[in-house]
Amino acid sequence: MTQPVKFYQTGTFTVGNRLLAPEQRSVQASAERNNSLNSGHRACQGCGEALGARYAVDAAMRATGGELIAANATGCLEVFSTPYPETSWQLPWIHSLFGNAAAVGTGIAAALKVKARKAGHALSSVRVIAQGGDGGTTDIGFGCLSGMFERNDDVLYICYDNEAYMNTGVQRSSATPPGARTATTMAVGEHPGAEFGQGKNLPRIAMAHGIPFVATATVADLRDLEAKVEKAMGLHGARYLHILVPCPLGWGAAAHDTIRLARLACQTGLFPVFEAEHGDVSHVTKIRHRVPVQEYLRPQKRFAHLFGTPGHPEMLARIQADADRNIRRFGLLDEASEPESETVPAGGLAPGEAAGQAGPGRGA
Amino acid sequence: MTMQKPFAITLDPGSSLANKTGTWRTERPVYVDRLPPCNEQCPAGEDIQGWLYHAEGGDYESAWRHLTRDNPFPAIMGRVCYHGCEGMCNRGQLDAPVGINSVERFLGDEALKQGWRFEAPGAESGKQVLVVGAGPSGMSAAYHLRRLGHRVTVLEAGALMGGMMRFGIPKYRLPRDVLDAEMQRIVEMGVTVRLDTKVVDVAQTMKDAGFDAAFLAVGAHIAKRAYIPAKDSSRILDAVAVLRSMEGEEQPMLGRRVVVYGGGNTAIDVARTARRLGAAEAIIVYRRTREKMPAHDFEVEEALQEGVMVKWLSTIKQADDRTLTIEKMKLDEKGLPQPTGEFETLEADSLVLALGQDVDLSLLEGVPGLVVDDGVVQVDPATMMTGHAGLFAGGDMVPAERNVTVAVGHGKKAARHIDAWLRGARLQAAPKHAPASFERLNPWYYSDAPKTVRPELELARRTSSFDEVQGGLTEDNALFEARRCLSCGNCFECDNCYGVCPDNAVVKLGPGQRFAINYDYCKGCGMCVAECPCGAIDMVPEQA
Predict the structure, then answer these.
(1) Per-residue pLDDT of chain A (364 residues; tens, 9 = 90+)
(2) CA–CA gap between residue B302 and residue B176 (Å, rounded)
(3) Do A39 and B510 touch (CB under 8 A)?
(4) Contact A97/A141 with Cβ under 8 angstroms?
């Protein structure tokens, strides 16, 4: 009784794998990938957003055969990629205002639809993405984005979430996680850092619009990210992809730790990776090696005040409770593999949870 | 290019490629090759990580050719090597070490099945080299010397090739067809082997036939003796003679109760052989404890499973007709056995002494410059040359651990230095790569997979036959096992560096060509270093 070997050394954990059939390999492993965001951009060393943007847009370019237009909100991604007159983008790309990338995407999609109809086609072969950071998405551009969702406009909106306004000097956004120090939530007083019980969870808000496709991803799992972009580009209507992109500067982390931190965000449960169709969760990426939240928080200076003496063990406990809640809510653990690991604090849910604020992509 | 510009636009669009971000860098990533712990440990100097790389892709012939650059006997190795490599394997810190030895055996068996052969040397050197002894060390040297273009003549005292592999290792561990096939493959390269030819005076032999250099590899065939007062009627044999007679027509008469005296692998081999010859009881008497026993633990375990018994902390004081007098021992604080004065008797039809072996060095008499110390020939450990120029030695007859793998390694090393010596040169040892430690790996990227276990002959068949005890892996299992390799310290082209660079500053050079860094744009973030699974990139400070 022999079974064919289904073990490929590193499987799909690595970017490439010579042992896999060519059609099973990633876009990023290809020497012919588009490099949509080219060398010479001015992002900081180890920028997660630059990496996430190339991963996502290259995958969209592959999925659409290169027929793609991008609208880009103001923010780091725009500033570091396109200082006049140079650009790093290797696709048709337009810079919108800070708050209206979703609306510009909608407009481009409408124009393409008209052009297609005039040419006698039902749909345009040229597709549209709109993209921005968490500030431009969850705060300033939220009205335009919600409108794009409720009209079900044919745009994939990609949010690169680095959890604060990094371009202007690390101010808090509604995606900043509780406890994090930013320029506007200093690590002082009785409740240092960002407040618990504030902020919003955009993936779940997007799901509430009932749009065809909502997904989260990180720069730590390329194959998952590419699969989600490809799936999104195979659908029409409003789609939303929320990618966690660690920011070495804003998070106070080492430049080489960007991917490691994204991985730890998932493995702690703080950033659940899932996808949802028409408002219902349809797939969850399980935690492979569960770790306590301290492992994720400790390498980041924005959380330094939680550690040491006296530190803030009560805040660490609340963050751990947030992670545990995500794990329960999304079923992030394989029951068989880790039966014992729930750490629900005595006395039930923490106040932040009771307010329904600590959910998927909390920290998202 | 000038184009019609819109309002307030004065410059043509440009590419960010004009912005050489490499100037930001204070450290640079540099690709390196590191020495994996398996390779570092291998006494035969195999590039284990290198041949596993080919096996991982299912290219078994390339894997076998890569392996046999260093060791021409993978089918033998895959059975008798004590595989210290697996003890060093970094994967042992994740789940279980890679089953290197079983993959090696698979490749060796596959080569025999497919009839893969060694290529004849490209050009003849015109030099004649004598090899004394057709054991693992001598035949390894013959192989490497022949590959380097020399004419090689092997003189062997015995009637068959293999040396101690034939006369010291039982069939159930090394089937003779496997041994014969791997020996014969070397003969087919154009190596001359003369059997039943004992060299009595090496200087005279070299002079007579005009040899330019010689490699001596005589095995330890002489059993060591211990003084045990014995009656004439008591039956006392030595382990070497017992194992040797297994190769002849007449099997040794050991009786129903056999006592073996000693604690090495040979003692285990004899006890297991006795069981297979029909002894109802095979009892090993050893003066120390199991922890102190020089025999390898897995062999002790297999022997115990087969019903071999061991009397620990015991010495034999006297042998009478069918009874032995045993004195109990105890360990002192230094761990040395001390007599207790307590005695007991043990029934035995025969007593086999397995107390170590010596080498017959009589062929060296009168050779000037040679230094013999503690029963072995002194050699320069870097070159294996004895005190007599042009005369090299290896295997059991030089100071080293005595096992097949060490012997094979001596043969290779000596061959390379004989080749250099014949050209009037001295071979400089190539600088070794820095070690590939576990701490440099990023184990996240490896799939979880425990070690495949080779099938073992069921017990009942084991003790009644000389069939091989350990089975081989199927192709699927061998492939699985090979793919468990972490490729420590050596790029295996997983594309991680190429993928994770936020600046597209890693250039993919194509299959087998690995990668290069484009230092015009590399900002020195170190992400490629952190995310390299196998630790094949170093971060180096830029020069001011």
Answers:
(1) 344 556 888 888 999 999 988 888 999 999 999 999 999 999 999 999 999 999 999 999 999 999 999 999 999 999 999 998 999 999 999 999 999 999 999 999 999 999 999 999 999 999 999 999 999 999 999 999 999 999 999 999 999 999 999 999 999 999 999 999 999 999 999 999 999 999 999 999 999 999 999 999 999 999 999 999 999 999 999 999 999 999 999 999 999 999 999 999 999 999 999 999 999 999 999 999 999 999 999 999 999 999 988 899 999 999 999 999 999 999 999 875 544 434 433 333 333 333 333 334 433 3
(2) 21
(3) no
(4) no
A18, A31, A259 ranked by CB distance to B57: nearest:
A18
Distance (Å, whole) CA B144 – CA B141: 5
Assembly ipTM: 0.90
Dihedral-angle region of residue B30 (phi above 0 means left; psi in -120 to 50 means alpha; beta otherwise):
beta
Q: Does B485 touch chain A (CB under 8 A)?
A: yes
| Region of B535 on the Ramachandran plot (φ > 0 left; ψ -120 to 50 alpha; else beta) | left
C-alpha distance from residue B416 to each of B143, B267, B410, B429 (Å)? 11, 35, 10, 11
- How close A272 comes to chain B (CA, Å)? 18
**For testing the chain A interface, which of B5, B9, B15 should be mutated: the one with the most A CBs within 10 Å?**
B15
For residue B417, give every residue at least 6 positions away whose Cβ sits within 8 Å of its Cβ, in sequence order, or none. Answer: B382, B383, B384, B385, B392, B426, B427
Please give the Cα distance from A7 to A163 (Å, whole number): 37
Q: Is A87 on the interface with B (CB under 8 A)?
A: yes
Beta carbon pairs, A and B, within 8 Å: 164
**Measured distance CA(B169)–CA(A311) in Å, rounded:** 66
3-state SS assignment for residue A284 = strand
Evaluate whether B42 touches B36 at the Cβ level (below 8 Å): no
Angle subtended at Cα B130 by Cα B128 and Cα B131, rounded to the nearest 5 degrees? 140
CB B188 within 8 A of CB B328: no
- In this complex, do B17 and A38 lie within 8 Å of one another by their Cβ atoms? yes
Confidence (pTM): 0.90
From chain A, pick out residues whose CB is under 8 angstroms from the CB of B487. 9
